[in-house]
Amino acid sequence: MNKINHLYWRAGFGLSPDEWRQKQNWSTSKALDELFSQAKKATLLPVSPIEFDREDKKSNRDAFQQMKKDEHHKVAEANIAWVNRMADPNESALLERMTFFWHGHFACRSELGKLGVQQLNLFRKHSLGNFRDLLLGIAQDPSMIRYLNNQQNRKEKPNENFARELMELFTLGRGNYTEGDIKEAARAFTGWSSTLDGDFVFRPIWHDFGNKTFFGKTGNFNGEDIIDHILAKPEAATFIARKIYRHFVNDKVDEARVKELGQQFFKANYNIGKLMRSIFESDWFYAPENQGAKIKSPIELMAGMMRNLNMRLDQPMGLLFLEKALGQMLFNPPNVAGWAGGKNWIDNSTLTTRMSLAGLFFSSSEFTMRVKDEFEAVQSEGKMARKLSVKMDLKPLVSAITATGPDAMAQELAAYFLPIVPVIKLNSLTQTLPSNEKDGQIAALAMRILSLPEYQLC
Amino acid sequence: MKRRDFLRQASLASTAMMVPSFLTGSSLGKLYKNRAGKILVVVQLSGGNDGLNTIVPYRNDIYYRNRPDLGVSKTEVIPVSDDLGFNPALQSLRSIFDQGQMSIINNVGYPNPDRSHFRSMDIWHTASESSEYLNSGWIGRYLDSNCPGCQSPYQAIEVDDTLSLALKGQEKRGFAMSDPNRLKRAADNRILQAISKAPHTGADEEKVGYLYKTLIDSESSANYLFEQSKKHHSTATYPQSEFGQDLRTIAQLITADTDTKIYYASLTGFDTHANQKARQERLLGQYADAMKIFVDDLKQNGLLDDVLILTFSEFGRRVNQNASRGTDHGTANNLFLMGGQLKKPGFFNEGPDLSNLDDGDLKYSVDFRKVYATILNRWLEAPAPSILGKSFADLGVI
To answer: Average pLDDT of chain B?
Structure first.
């Protein structure tokens, strides 16, 4: 695959036809300069308050139910808006991609719109910055605090949930701490709580100010101290480097390379942007074994296809059904360990749906699958929610394709869409085209090529 | 051109799709002749079924004190033991119970219970500790265990359009199918219909081979299951509910001697935080009526001895009713086994101890993984300790 295309699939969500036309011959360093400078300009998203009158005792329970519904809906809207940003060539692809990576790493279910967007802003702010800031931010993030029960973490009865995941899933991995360390760390995070309005608050009366012994050191540690002790271990840098390698490079981990990256990350004082840049600048990142080696996650697949086809959703609730059916709903990971990824995305049902996706988009057809636990926000939209109506403007794609004749056009489209040479012969796709016009032929060929199994890879 | 015409002509189904020879050949058609013998059917009640109002401790004052509006009164209840009775909505299960084809295991749960639906269901599906996150399910790991027939893509079928975590292994997956006809229609219109033997172009088998294999398995499974679904037409009158029809699909496949060992079905809506009574009873009625027909159907075909049905929910509910005449998320719960070969029909153990609660919640006494271990060992003849990650005592119920 073209290096630029590979880079944009991994550091972003692929290229739009216009981007493909303009950038396919760029050097990778030019592309990286643009990706990183664009990411700096990105702004934070507006956060809307939780609207709920707690004084209104009489209708309290009904009002509470209504508030929950409204907030669910806001999470759904934030979800859709995010996928649209991923697909939008005017947004910073790298920033959205990094935000998406951290969303998967610090996996957290958000049920209130404000909390979801607030957390997204945390990721947007620090996704290429310093990992310590990010980690401290997540320890003080109201959505995570609620998700991992840190509100119940009080001096008299510590709740270890956050402390455990902090070490097991967020920084060190098993084998690098003891059960005792978890107990002591939990005490240090007592009183790190969230207000009913969804803001972080430190409650001294719940906090345990006594001495704690953590990693063999004793002192009156608070949560911030615990984070510093964790990050003082090189294992933390390696752990994050491995996770980044798996997401951005290859599910099959090259341990020697990860070790190197971990050391580099540790020496650079956990500067994430530097680490990412050095990965994207390396030769091995573009090696054939790392191209087309990953199965796209459902979000990567959908946002990428939207970008490839210059497409937006204008009946967007259908997107949520697709996320659910394909197994990746934003703001709603399966558990705090996040989405398992790789082959875990694939079963008979998801693969069939994935390969029908181009057809669904081209036809704006109704989504007829049975989907588990249909969630309130979508239920209330009724049947319309299943409709996938899209706006697709194929003119840029048509002008990006310079070849003439179906076979040559198919070759060019495959080079644009696919990370590896497809198993089937492309000329078997060029028969029985529904049109003699270039536009119609390109549309038909695009739909066929996007339905190939190879498009599931990047 | 009309959009529909464009699609018909543009879609891959109309082209002669070539699939490489390394992927065709042996994996096509019906490979796996090994009908199971013993069959497991798992029924999931999603949302957290209120076990206390399902199997009612109708002699217990604490129960009635905690549930002044919600308690099932002594006159309504169907007594089946000295202190426990069925919710009246379970009327149709009475005969199954009386004939010794139902075991009720009380107080099933796990240590450090989680009250989130998602997480607790996750724990039930993966059979993990509550502090542990696994990305494979217990049935999926059974498929991974090289059991006889497990190389078949339809060894475990979930009757739904999407596949639950329970059926996803590290290597192998169960098969999701809500309706064999629809599955067949989808397969017919799809990419693989026109499989032929064209030579492949040297593509990267390691990268894309897995996807092609899944596709071809799906295609052959769709054809096989469609044929199987036509072999036996059940004459029993199943309820029109989705759940009823799902059980009908399962019964027809079992009766046709399908090479499938595990079936998985769900009934959802049990999250009864408000105005619980009517809603729960409607769902329990749906469940019981469909199960009764299903069990009778199997019996009529002489198959009940070959089938074990497990019914579970991700948690029970709190003992105390809430202010909206509903109940909130709780912990331990009862679980049902049905079939023709139960060793301890009736009640396996004592009912819940309402005088000994954990912060208003029932304490578990039977780890649900003991139930899985028993089923894996005794029924599926599979190595339970390696599938569940550790050894659990056999309950001796089957």
So the answer is: 88
